[in-house]
User: What shape does this take?
Amino acid sequence: MPKHKTIKQKKIADFRRQLYSLKLKDAPFSSTIAVQYTPANTTILDTNIPSVFREITKTSIFVLIALFFQIILFMLLKAKVFSIPGLIY
Assistant: This one.
């Protein structure tokens, strides 16, 4: 099973293709083109801290709501307020 590329690897590959296409346009009759690539030429993606915090907050709220619902459901089933057919407590 092939491994999937990360976003950083995809951006690096895109930069390589752009650099290669620019070299081809500059020298259309050259048969050998030496493409030199250094990671310093790429831009590093910033992690947008507020959006990461917002996503973590949304996820934690969803998890807390689900946990609260499970506890309430357990209490109601244990007190035999209602029952689910086939479930024995």
